[in-house]
Amino acid sequence: MSFYSGHHLGGTPGLLPKPYYWWEAGALMGSLIDYWYYTGDTRWNDVAQEGLLFQVGPNNDYMPPNQTMTEGNDDQGFWGMAVMSAAENNFPDPPHGKPGWLALAQAVFNTQAARWEKQDCGGGLRWQIFPWNNGYNYKNSISQACFFNIAARLARYTGNQSYAAWAERTWDWMVATHLLDLKTYYIYDGMHVENCSNITPYQWTYNAGAFLMGAAAMYNISDAHAATWRERIDGLLNGSLIFFTGDDKNIMTEVACEPVNLCDLDQQSFKAYLARWMAATTKWAPWTYDRVKPLLAASAVAATSTCTGGDNGRMCGLKWNTRKWDGTTGVGQQMAAMEAVLANTIRHSRSPVTDWDGGTSVGDPGAGGADVGRKNRVFPTVSAAEKAGAHTLLDLYSSRFASCGTTHYTIALGRWLLMTNEAENIKTILGTNMDDWPIDGPRLLSTLPVLGPDSIFTSNGEAWHRARAMLKPSFVRDQVADLQCFDRHIKNLLAAVPAADGVTFDIQALLFDMAMDSSTDFLLGHSTSLLTQASPEAQQFVRDFEYAGRESAKKARLGPLLYHLPHRKLRDAVRGLREYVRFYLKRAIAEKEEAGGSNKARDRRRNYVFLDELLKQSPPEDYTVDQILSVLIAGRDTTATAMAAVFYFLARDPAAVEKLREEISGVGVENPTWEQLKHMKYLNNVIKEALRLFSPVATNSRTSNKETILPRGGGKDGSQPILIPKGTPVRWSSHELHRNKDVFGPDPDEFRPERWDSDLRVRPLSWEYIPFSGGPRICLGQQFALTQIAYTLFRFFKTFRAIEARGSGPFLLRTNLTISFPYGCLSTFRNLA
C-alpha cells in the first residue's frame, strides 16, 4: 500500500499515482477485499470501501467522466469483478444512501450487455468503449472474460438465468471466433474487426483465470449442463499449465513477456488474478483443489523468495523463477505475490454466499440503465460554481471591458475595484511608479499561506529587493543555457508518451509531471521522479503542493475577512511541503560541511544546483525555504501550462506543425544548444503566439499605497489621467490585453505564429504583451522557461511527425494561481514513418 495514496491528504480515493492506469486501482481494491477475506484483518476495509464508492461515476456503473479517454470494457470490468467479490464475501456493506455492491456489479453488467454487437465478428465486446480511443476496432479476450466472469457470478448469486444465458453466449462466441481453442483450451489475445480471422496469438494469465472462475460459477448452478462445464473447467486448467514453468513446471510465469523482459506495467500484475481465480475456483469446483494447490504452493514459495528488494528489503520482483529479486518493483509485483500466498489458505476460508444463503448486499437489476450503451463523450456543462474559476471568469472581464470601457470601476466582495487593460496604466503600475503599487489583496493572500511574508512573491520594498538580489544570480545565462539537467527529464517525458501510434492521452498531465521533476532537480538537486518512479515522500509532496495551491487560491477569493478562517488541512499540507524542502536543504548543508565549505560533493553529481548557489549567501533556513518554494511555484506551474498551451494550439494547426518540423530538421542536430534554439525564428514565434493566447498568469493585481495617478481612464472617452485614492485595488487581464485588435490585427483570437514576423506586426510591442509580467518584478525565470519550452518542442518533433487534437469540447480555462485546461489537453501523437 506504499504505492497507493488515495487515502492521504490531497489524494483521490480509488486512484493509483501515475503511471498506473485506472483499471489497476480497481484490481487493487479487489486485492484488499481478498486480504480481508483470507486474513480477517480489517485495517484496509475503509480504504477499499472509499475507493470502490468514490469511482462509481454519476450513474453508479464505474464510468466516471474523467476516465473516458482511456476506459475500456476490461477496465470497467475489473471494477465490476471487485464489487462482485465484495457481494459474494459479505464485505461490509456501503453506508445508507450508497449503492450496494451487488447493484454496482449489475450496473456494470447492464452497460456492457448493451454494447454487445453482432455487426463485426458476429458479436462480442470491443476493447474500448468510446470510438475515439485507440483500440476501438479491437475485440479482445479480456473484455469478454470480464463480462463472462461477472455474468456467471451474477447468475450464481441471484439465481437469474438471464445472466447465465449471457455467459453461455459469451463462451460460444469465444469458441466460434477461435479466441478460445477447444483443442488446447488456450485463450488468445484478440482480433481486429477489419479481419476477424486474424488472431493475435499472445496468451495472458488473467484471461485463463477469469474464464476459469466464470466456468466454475456456471458449473455450480448448472444441473443439466454440469458435466459440460466440468469438462470445460478441466480443459481450462489444462490450458493454464502453459503459464507454469521451471524444473517442475509449477511456477507461475507470464510467458508472453517475462522471458523476453517485455512485460509492461499492466502485465506485471496479471499473475495476481490467475492466482486469485484459481483459488476461488476450488470453492465452486472442489475436485480442482488437488490440481490447483500444488501449483499455488510452489508459486507462493517462489514469489516470496523474490521479496527482498527495495529500501525496506520487502519489495517483490516479477520473475519468480529466478528465486531472487530481479530489481523491479511495483503495485503489480506486490499484488501478485500477495495473492499467490493468500490463495494457499483457500481451503480454510468460508465459501462465497448467494442471495439466499447469507448474502446481504442490496441489488438493483435495472442499475446502470441511464448509461447503457453510451459511446459518446459527454463534455461536462459548466456549472455556476465552475464559472467562478474557469474560462468564463476571463470572459466576464472581456465583456465588462467591452461594455464599460478599458478602465472602469466594479464591485468585488463589497469593495470597489478598478479594472484596466490599458498598456500605459500597466506600465505605470509595474514599471514607472512601481513603489506606489505594492502586492496586496487577493494577489498576496493567494500565496501568503504557502510562501510566508518574506518570499519574493509576498514581500514589498526593501524585503523584496533583498529576496530578488538573493535569487537573481541563479538565473544567469550559464545556468539558463545548461540543458544537461533538463535533457534527462525530456527523455523521461518522451518515454512516457504512449508508444502505439495514435493513442489518446493527456499531454498536460505529463507536462506537469515533467516540470515538477525538472524543477525539483534544478532547485534541490533531487528530482521527484514522477515520470519514472516517485518515492512515497515525493508523491506526498506533490499532493501537498497542489492541494496548498488550490486551497490558498480559494481562501483568497473569500476576501480578507473569511480568509482568516482556520483551515487545518491546508495548514498540514503547507507543513508537509515545507518539511520536504527542508530535508534537502539540511542535506545540502551537511554535504557542504563535509566538503569543507565547498560544493565539491554535489558538484560530482551535477554541474549546477540552485540550492547550492543560495547557500553561498548563508541565509536563514525558513527564508531559504520561502524562496525555493517561490521559484518552484513559478517554475513548475507556469512552465507546464505554457507548454500545454503550445501543444494545444499546434494540435489544431497541422500547417504550423509542418513548418515547425521543417525548421527543426534544418538545424541538423538531435540535441540543440541554447544558441541554436534562440535563433530558430518560427519556433520562437510559435511560443510567443501560444503565450499570447494563453498567458499562464492570466490576471494580476496591485493596490495603491498612496493617492496617485494613472495615465488612462479619465475624461469622457477614457483618454485622460485618472486619480486613484490610496488603498485602491487595481486588476488587469493579460488575457484581454493580448487580444487587442489595434495591436494584434483583426484576428486576435486566432493562433497565427506568422503575426510575429516584423512585416506583419501592426506596430512594435512594449507593454501590450506581458506573459511574464514586466518592470522590475518581471519573472526572473523567463528565459529559463522559454528555453525549456523551446527544447521540449524541438525534441518532441524530432520524435513525432504530427500531433492531433482529441475531444471537441469548448475552450475552457481553469483559473487558480495559474490557468490550466480543466479537462486536460487530450492529444495523440504520430510517430515518424
Automatic annotation (TrEMBL):
Compartments it resides in: Endomembrane system
Would the keyword Transferase turn up in this protein's UniProt record?
no
Alphabetical keyword list = Glycoprotein, Glycosidase, Heme, Hydrolase, Iron, Membrane, Metal-binding, Monooxygenase, Oxidoreductase, Signal
- The primary site where this protein sits is membrane
Region annotated Disordered sits at 353-372
Q: Which cofactor does it need?
A: heme
**A Gene Ontology biological process annotation?**
carbohydrate catabolic process
Report the EC code(s) recorded for this entry.
3.2.1.101
Molecular function via GO = heme binding; iron ion binding; mannan endo-1,6-alpha-mannosidase activity; monooxygenase activity; oxidoreductase activity, acting on paired donors, with incorporation or reduction of molecular oxygen
| Gene Ontology terms: cellular component | endomembrane system
Give the reactions, separated by semicolons, that this protein catalyses.
Random hydrolysis of (1->6)-alpha-D-mannosidic linkages in unbranched (1->6)-mannans
Positions in coiled-coil regions: none
Q: Which first-to-last residue range defines the signal peptide?
A: none
**What SUPFAM superfamilies is this protein classified in?**
Cytochrome P450 (SSF48264), Six-hairpin glycosidases (SSF48208)
Give residues annotated as binding heme: 779
- Tell me which family the UniProt entry assigns to this protein: Belongs to the cytochrome P450 family. Belongs to the glycosyl hydrolase 76 family.
Q: What is this protein called?
A: mannan endo-1,6-alpha-mannosidase
Q: Which organism is it from?
A: Parachaetomium inaequale
